[in-house]
Predict the 3D structure of the following.
Amino acid sequence: MRNAAGRDVLSATNNLGKDSPMLSSYPVACPHEKCGWTGGLVPSIVRGGPDAEIASMQRAWFRCPSCQRDWEVRITNDRVTVMPAIEQGG
Ligand SMILES: [Zn+2]
C-alpha cells in the first residue's frame, strides 16, 4: 500500500473582502449623493457579486465600502465610465 501523499491541495481562495493580487482595482469615486467616497475598488461582474477581473468593454459593478450602495460601470481600456442609472425604482 502506498500513501496518498501527492494529493492536490487547491490553492484557490474564496476569501471575500480580501484584496487579491490577481484582480485589478480601479480608482473610483462613489457617485451616490452625500457619500463622496474615493479609493480603489475591485469590480464584480454582477451586482453584489464576488470580486472579478473585468474584460475591456464589459460592464461591471462596484460596491461602495462607505455607503454600501452599488453602481454600474463600463470598463474600457482600464478606464471606468459610470453607467447612467436606468432602473425605475423597484
Ligand atoms: Zn458611497
User: Anything to note?
Assistant: The radius of gyration is 17 Å. Residues 26-82 form one domain. The beta strands are 26-29, 38-41, 58-63, 70-76, 79-82.
